[in-house]
Specification:
The protein is α+β, with helices and mostly antiparallel strands. The protein contains 25 helices and 49 strands. It starts with 36 loop residues before the first helix and ends in a 38-residue tail after the last helix.
């Protein structure tokens, strides 16, 4: 039987005598059989041989050296999984000891025997645990306060390590970055606080910034944050990311306050495998007290033999890391750590001095709190290499010394960094400096082509993408004719052009696949700043064939794959994410692209097309980032910069070319001068040549006889006999004359910059005439993003709000009319203690201005309200708006085009009425700038509340009614226009403290409108408006209904017409809809008729609403008509969401009010 322990022919005595060492190592598949451990070890060792000198890696912060005992200890425990605490209880105890030691190094105030902390896989997991704890604490507090908690953020400098970017992305927490600059090299506390708000979970200073090696001033931040928290009432904490500094500060700078000695520092994370001096894979996070570690972070499992708690993101973790960390604490002690860290800093200082003495480097900072530092090259235009080249050269020598660009706001600064760790001594530093000096000397001798000629601006015309010098670049393509026109205009203007002037010639990027640029703002940003987001839409049109509609796509955006687009559309249809598509087919051929999307008969083609734009790559974006090397340095270039760089390049090319042509022309003219001399003395020349023994002798004699140069004499000796003919002699002189003209022209180009520019321009014109073409990509200037309105038909809806704040929209057609006195139909399903309180009609595209009892104004599009069936509960309005828990909605105003129709909003007003009889009038324009958190719509006095808001045109009459059945009528001109935050003036005088206003109506058509009043017990009536005489505001009013025990108090007043229906909602959730025309108009002082029978349910009326009257047949007919019509996409420009404050225009109750009380009429 064959021995499978060895490959056939393997030598059992020597590894390199085996056949296996002659075979390549596997790449894709596992070998069929085994080999010896010696062979396997040697193969792996050989493949990584060039990379097995980790001490030469001066890029990493991670420990690359531990003594033999530490290495032995780790190897002996390499198979221990720390999570199995029941199997390895002493390691769990040792872990607790490590946490205690680390916590006390950071001056933890916690009194418990075991400090609150956790083992992590490096500082990355430790940072995340600290960040998650801060987020959970913040979220729990916000929930308890009843405030929204969906937009958390944290503040950090741009010098963050990448884990914080991961944290922000994975937990969907906004990362607010404070820029580092050459002036402010660490986190600026004041700038950090400017970014804080009520949603800030923590501020994160860094001790040992990865980019620079510097420390943020935590003590200054804590002091500033303490004042900020006291001022705002927030309690924003600090989490210190001490990945590097956590094991340096306690030993080298024990008096520096950065740790738990500071009030707001609640957690600190560090990396044990950096300056904690343990091999890779260990980190620590410690909290100030166990109260700051949320309980929900403690996960327990019982499937490993016991109930094992785990505070970690990663589950399994190596136990030998704990042993190694504890070994280092025992082995080194405080003094040992101090000496190792100080030696590392001393080596850094030595290296810095050596680099400084070379005279070509400058340093980012004079401080060196941690054993790492960075440097950059001094400016030198003659130098043709960068730090990237030096880094690559050192890498060839085996060193890893990184070169990179600084973070945001300093991207144009290229630096190199050295990190010195345990294991790096002066000898290694000397070896590094020897290699740096040798590499610099070698780089200084290298030459590279400084000019690569091009006739067109390739960067603009052909675009480009990729990552260069550590920075991503993404340039779009442009139209050749437009770009050349722009370049020629730039030349004509001598560069005195701005970006806006150039945009007259270069309209926008032009993509080879055509499509349409949708909106110009992104183009403008890209041209002006070098960065912008351009929206691209494929071209599509709707075709109708035999009453069947199809969407025909003829062009798609740049870089979109047609086959993948079609597949994705089909997937969306199958997943029910797009309705209305029956089939997608590719009918493209050599004549062009044609993707056919069949639309179902009952679907709206325009809505389907808009959904395709929204959900697929049929509309996509191109993110412009114009970064290029200019004179060896990366720069972000706008349109003018790009064209100027190209024109300067062409100028240099033309000058260099002209100098070359001039030199060649002068050399030719020199030779021609000699040949003409020879022609004039041909007999003597021939005699000299014939009598010479050799060509060299002939050359020397000709030079002596005719005072010729060596080049001229050599050309005469090599001249052919055919040039002695008369015709050739004439050609010779004619060529000389042409050469002389050429020389004069070339010299003029060099001397006259205008002529040089003309040459450049003529060459550009030649290219344009030969290769120029028309634009392929259209531009739609006026549009930006898709409006959400495009996805909803503009149907009429009923907005329902319950007493407990649940909101929904229901199509109006679901409600049917009943006769007067019916018992109603179930209109809303609510909780037992809840009831429907308000019903308002609105169309889908309208904006609702929502006013609350506390006088706040919010904005909500009708289509943003969740749709619910007639008997569904709806959704809590607090989930849609940031309404305070103890506030409730009291009024809606529907405006069709709030942000776009400036004429309308500047000619209409909002009338506010409070339950204490105060009225205020404000221009609608003051409420036309939506803000997410709402604004104060009116300043309310104590114990007052907003009950009604009406929109007027400035010439309406107002009717206000109170609970005791009286109403007052006056013209709105009696109320002057006030600011948004004003309090208002008295509108009606109430009977006493128990009385209050129940409603306000604005009369707009006295001929058609009547006044409808409804009482608590279901009685109501209509009265003529003229029954209420016009008085001044502030009076007590006249009787509007005869209040009796049978009728109950007044609950509602509405202005209605014959075309209205009214909807009455009971506190039990019962609704009834009846026609206003069924109610007779009767006297003002009567008690009315029964509108709804409340006796059967012992119920009360909660709210009354008026809607347009429609029969069920009309509803069905309109629905059918809507489905047959094509929905046109409506795009409205969103205006900037800016803050605004009006000057308070508060008026006292008695100011400008006629306080004469009016006698109540019976």
């Amino acid at each position: 039987m064959e021995d499978l322990n060895f490959r056939k022919g393997d030598a059992k005595t020597d590894v390199f005598g085996s056949d296996r060492m002659l075979q390549p190592s596997p790449v894709e598949r596992i070998p069929d059989g085994p080999t010896t451990p010696e062979v396997a070890y040697q193969m792996v060792k050989d493949e990584t041989f060039a990379q097995t000198q980790p001490r030469l890696n001066l890029a990493t912060f991670v420990t690359t050296y531990m003594d033999d005992y530490a290495t032995k200890l780790m190897n002996e425990a390499i198979n221990i999984n720390y999570i199995d605490e029941t199997e390895y209880p002493r390691i769990a105890v040792m872990n607790g000891k490590c946490i205690n030691i680390v916590a006390n190094l950071w001056n933890s105030p916690e009194k418990d025997t075991w400090k609150t902390g956790a083992l992590a896989i490096g500082s990355s997991e430790a940072c995340m645990l600290g960040g998650v704890a801060a987020w959970l604490r913040w979220r729990k507090k916000r929930q308890a306060q009843g405030k929204p908690f969906d937009k958390p953020n944290f503040v950090i400098s741009t010098g963050f390590q990448v884990v914080w970017e991961k944290f922000a992305q994975l937990w969907q927490i906004e990362m607010r970055e404070v820029p580092l600059t050459l002036e402010k090299t660490t986190l600026d506390p004041e700038e950090a606080l400017k970014m804080c708000d009520e949603n800030t979970i923590c501020v994160v200073p860094i001790q040992g910034v990865t980019w620079t090696g510097l420390n943020d001033d935590v003590e200054a931040l804590d002091k500033a944050l303490d004042a900020y928290n006291a001022k705002t009432g927030y309690d924003i904490p600090i989490h210190v990311d001490a990945a590097s500094g956590g094991f340096i500060l306690p030993f080298l700078y024990p008096d520096t306050k950065w740790d738990f000695r500071l009030k707001w520092v609640l957690s600190i994370s560090t990396s044990g495998h950096k300056f904690g001096m343990v091999y890779p894979g260990v980190g620590w996070v410690v909290w100030k007290d166990k109260q700051y570690l949320p309980e929900e972070m403690n996960f327990a499992v019982n499937y490993l033999g016991a109930n094992i708690p785990s505070i970690s993101i990663n589950f399994s973790r190596p136990g030998n890391q704990v042993l190694a960390q504890y070994y280092q604490f025992l082995r080194l002690g405080k003094e040992g750590y101090k000496k190792v860290q100080q030696n590392c800093i001393n080596v850094c200082l030595y290296l810095k001095k050596q680099l400084q003495d070379m005279g070509i480097f400058e340093f980012f900072s004079n401080d060196m709190p941690n054993p790492l530092f960075i440097w950059k090259l001094k400016e030198d235009k003659k130098r043709n290499w960068t730090l990237y080249d030096l880094s690559d050269a050192l890498h060839v020598e085996g060193w890893q010394v990184p070169a990179y660009t600084m973070p945001k706001a300093m991207e144009d600064v290229i630096i190199m960094r050295v990190v010195v760790r345990q294991g790096t001594g002066i000898d290694l530093a000397d070896l590094l400096m020897e290699d740096i000096k040798r590499c610099v000397k070698q780089l200084d001798t290298l030459k590279e082509p400084t000019v690569l000629p091009t006739r067109i601006p390739n960067l603009l015309v052909n675009g480009g993408s990729g990552i260069a010098v550590g920075m991503a670049t993404n340039m779009p393509t442009h139209n050749l004719s437009e770009v050349l026109d722009g370049c020629m205009a730039f030349i004509d203007a001598r560069g005195e052009m701005e970006v806006a002037d150039l945009m007259q010639y270069i309209k926008a990027p032009d993509f080879p696949t055509g499509a349409t640029i949708y909106g110009y703002a992104g183009v403008k940003d890209a041209f002006e700043t070098g960065r912008g987001r351009i929206i691209l839409r494929g071209k599509a049109e709707i075709e109708t064939d035999s009453n069947h509609e199809k969407i025909i796509i003829t062009e798609i955006p740049y870089l979109v794959n047609k086959a993948e687009l079609i597949k994705y559309i089909a997937d969306l249809v199958n997943e029910k994410r797009i309705d209305g598509i029956s089939n997608v087919n590719d009918e493209s051929d050599r004549s062009g692209m044609r993707i056919v999307v069949d639309v179902k008969r009952d679907a709206n083609s325009s809505v389907v097309l808009n959904k395709l734009y929204k959900l697929t790559a049929l509309q996509s974006s191109f993110s412009v980032n114009n970064i290029a090397l200019v004179n060896g340095r990366p720069r972000q270039l706008n349109l003018k910069d790009l064209i100027k760089a190209f024109v300067d390049h062409r100028h240099e090319v033309v000058i260099r070319r002209t100098k070359y042509d001039l030199r060649k022309a002068e050399e030719r003219a020199h030779i021609l001068e000699g040949l003409i001399i020879a022609s004039d003395n041909i007999d003597e020349v021939i005699a000299i040549i014939k009598s010479s023994k050799s060509p060299n002798e002939a050359i020397e004699r000709l030079m002596e006889r005719f005072s010729l140069s060596d080049v001229q004499a050599r050309a005469i000796v090599e001249m052919r006999l055919r040039q002695l003919t008369g015709l050739e002699q004439d050609k010779l002189r004619a060529e000389y004359e042409e050469i002389e003209k050429l020389i004069a022209y070339l010299k003029e180009i060099l001397e006259n910059d205008d002529l040089c520019m003309k040459v450049i321009k003529d060459e550009l014109q030649e290219i344009k005439d030969k290769y120029g073409d028309e634009r392929k990509t259209d531009i739609v200037y006026a549009s930006e993003e898709l409006n959400p309105e495009d996805f909803y038909a503009d149907d009429e809806m009923i907005i329902t709000i319950s007493h407990m704040g649940y909101i929904k929209r229901t199509p109006l057609s679901e409600f049917r009319a009943q006769g007067r006195g019916g018992v109603g139909a179930k209109g809303s399903e609510t909780r037992d203690e809840d009831f429907v309180e308000y019903i308002y009609p609105a169309s889908m595209h309208a904006t609702l201005l929502i006013f609350t009892a506390k006088g706040k104004c919010y904005w909500l599009k009708v289509f943003e309200i969740p749709e619910g069936a007639k008997n569904s509960k709806g959704r809590a309005i607090q989930n849609l708006l940031n309404i305070e828990p103890d506030d409730k909605v009291n009024a809606f105003i529907r405006v069709k085009k709030l942000t776009t129709d400036t004429e309308f909003i500047n000619s209409h007003y909002l009338l506010f009425c409070t339950k204490k009889g105060v009225i205020k009038k404000t221009l609608l324009e003051a409420y036309s700038r939506p803000r997410q958190n709402g604004v104060n719509a009116i300043t309310l006095r104590e114990d007052d509340g907003l009950i009604e808001v009406c929109m007027t045109n400035g010439n309406n009459e107002v009717l206000i009614a109170n609970r005791n059945g009286r109403a007052i009528r006056f013209h709105e001109s009696a109320v002057r226009v006030m600011g948004r935050t004003a309090s208002g003036v008295r509108g009606m005088t109430l009977d006493g403290d128990n009385d209050e206003v129940v409603g306000m109506v604005c009369i707009k058509d006295k001929e058609k409108e009547t006044v409808l009043v409804v009482s608590e017990q279901g009685y109501g009536k209509r009265s003529d408006i003229e029954d209420y005489r016009i008085t001044n505001r502030g009076g007590k009013g006249v009787k509007t209904i005869n209040i009796t025990e049978k009728t109950g108090k007044l609950v509602a007043i509405k202005n209605v017409t014959e075309e209205n229906d009214i909807m009455i909602i009971n506190k039990s959730g019962i609704t009834i809809r009846m026609k206003v025309s069924d109610l007779n108009v009767i006297g003002r002082a009567t008690q009315g008729v029964r509108l709804i029978n409340l006796e059967k349910r012992n119920d009360e009326i909660a709210s009354v609403c008026k809607v347009l009257s429609q029969t069920e047949e009309e509803i069905a007919e309109e629905k059918a008509q809507r489905e047959a019509l094509e929905g046109a996409a409506v795009h409205e420009h969103p205006i900037e969401n800016t803050d605004f404050e009006d000057v308070s225009d508060d008026v006292e109750n008695k100011e400008n009010v006629d306080d004469t009380e009016e006698t109540t009429e019976e």
